[in-house]
Design brief:
Oligomer: homodimer
Number of strands of chain A: 12
Radius of gyration of chain A: 26 Å
Shape of chain A: elongated
Number of domains of chain A: 3
CATH superfamily of the largest domain in chain A: Response regulator
Order of helices and strands of chain A: HHHHEHEHEEEHEHEHEHEHEHEE
Helix content of chain A: 25-40%
Number of helices of chain A: 12
CATH class of the largest domain in chain A: Alpha Beta
Largest interface: A-B, 80 and 79 residues
CATH architecture of the largest domain in chain A: 3-Layer(aba) Sandwich
Chain lengths: 348, 348
Amino acid sequence: MNAGGGRVRIYDVARLAEVSVATASKALNDTGRMTEETRNRVKAAATELGFRPNAMARGLIQKRSFTIGLLTNDTYGRFTLPVMAGISAALVDRGVSVFLCGIEDDPALGRVHLDAMLDKQVDGIIASGKRIDRRLPVDLSDLPVPVVYAFTEGQEGSVTLVSDDFQGSTEAVEHLLAHDRKRVVHVTGPETFASVRERASAYRAVIGGEGRVLYGTWSESWGHEAVAELWGTDGEHPDAVFCGNDQIARGVVDALRERGIKVPESVSVVGFDNWEIVASQTRPPLTSVDMNLEAIGREAGRLVLELAEGKPVEPGVRKLPCRLVIRQSSGGDAAVTERRGGLATAAD
Amino acid sequence: MNAGGGRVRIYDVARLAEVSVATASKALNDTGRMTEETRNRVKAAATELGFRPNAMARGLIQKRSFTIGLLTNDTYGRFTLPVMAGISAALVDRGVSVFLCGIEDDPALGRVHLDAMLDKQVDGIIASGKRIDRRLPVDLSDLPVPVVYAFTEGQEGSVTLVSDDFQGSTEAVEHLLAHDRKRVVHVTGPETFASVRERASAYRAVIGGEGRVLYGTWSESWGHEAVAELWGTDGEHPDAVFCGNDQIARGVVDALRERGIKVPESVSVVGFDNWEIVASQTRPPLTSVDMNLEAIGREAGRLVLELAEGKPVEPGVRKLPCRLVIRQSSGGDAAVTERRGGLATAAD
DNA sequence: GTGAAAGCGCTAACAG
DNA sequence: CTGTTAGCGCTTTCAC
């Protein structure tokens, strides 16, 4: 109805409704006072013309762009996408759109993206990473807009969101114990990761002792090696393995099957991350701890908007609960609590 | 230097440089004519004050926001992220930022995101999907801004980018033949997918005959089943399997190993997608066809900007070449042509 | 109740 | 070569 030339402006609406531009503006924004009749007439005119207010003009006055930026160094997307989905879900209804900026670990690239966003007057920035004990390669202090951190370390006194690894790990190990497992071991990633230490300490707390923790890399092959180490000797073997992530868990499950050890009958296995592609394709499918990344994203979106609107937000680190997604590898309840129905289809 | 209050405006720069606002504008944009001395003085003042032009004010006049939108229904992120990375890479230097909008397959959500972006005066939109024979659940015709399609079907006469599956598959099968494989079979996804038919026809063209094509699902388990079917009978067995995607390939490789059949010594396997997490963790790592999604993204970014700037762009479908990434599963050259060095680290 | 006028921060004619 | 003037499309006092 308005193809080609200029889009319809509030001026056109006002003329059609036979009011002034000022009245039209008030009518459409439900501000000011006027007859219901007038307001409706304006709204009808707007609808008829397909009027959409120019956000730039509005933003220029209100000093808000209804735009926020997501800065991330997680190129691989494991963390970013769910977080992004959550942010977006929390903000679309409020008319806020999100700039996604992947900055690798390149300070220069980070600077470029940050500047571009600041020029565009973003209302706030969410910094997201893949390790809670590492910072993004770009300085976000003293910015003219609020910043919320998700899954990455923030400045002193900033608002930070992380998953509650301790609680998640606790649930995982308790789940194993509840299924009568007596000899639970923990096979995990490099001890240098804060989350590795956190998960291991939860494991120890639940089993009430030192237990047995094997540190390695985040790979399937490490899962294989760990099984070789654990089952390579005579004597008692574990009857459950709590893994630091799903890839390790998959390696463990595969290695056990190759040795003729039944999962979950003889050994229960639980992973961490609930990375669909890995967890659901393992045979049997993995019980795994889900970090609720989308919820973290929603919360980050909500908080950054509160800050943008000048509302007070208590600084500090907020831990959001994980949830255990039970599949077959832990032998537990048959009830599968997955969100998705089938497999994610691959290749186009 | 400007903490708290209003940001510095061009007015402040002008005053410090002792020129008018108009001159300051021209100096900073390298337009108009003036003494080098004046220009430099203004620039120095801008630097000193840390002046960053307000993109909204500028956009309001120029009717450009230096912003584009990426609309996608690929929640899973397999396709979107690399494409997004490419777009972003092609546009940051030009000062363009990208709105990422995941719309699932929800028309209402699509509409909301689309409206939000149009309100923000995006200069263009890139529509991206996961199947070249499916459309996004939102009508993108008659928009006041240009649209470029990537990996999803566009309107009649639109600009569309896809990977050249035929060429990619051809390279894969020729690679197998070049390594003296005589009985190559093709295990792939559902025949309803255009890309499945395309890949299969390339397979047939290269081997010069009907060959043997097994259609199934995009899963690892289908790879297992296919092996059971192919090796379940007596007589001659294949010496190479060209798979429709990496998940199937992984299933095939695992199933072969379980049967004691050596990969790549007895059977060569090639996958499709080059999905790092699957390809590199398979034992042995998968040779696979990479669709160069990032290149598709770069091209999409470049094209949408050309269109936004009013330059003519030939409509039609453009196929971008795939490249074969050789790892161990095909036995070929030991040379590994991977981009990344190590494993993607998992869970923080 | 409604409208005229000012102005957000910047750029682009057009004078001087 | 530089400054003055007029807006971009919208919101918002403040009169009427």
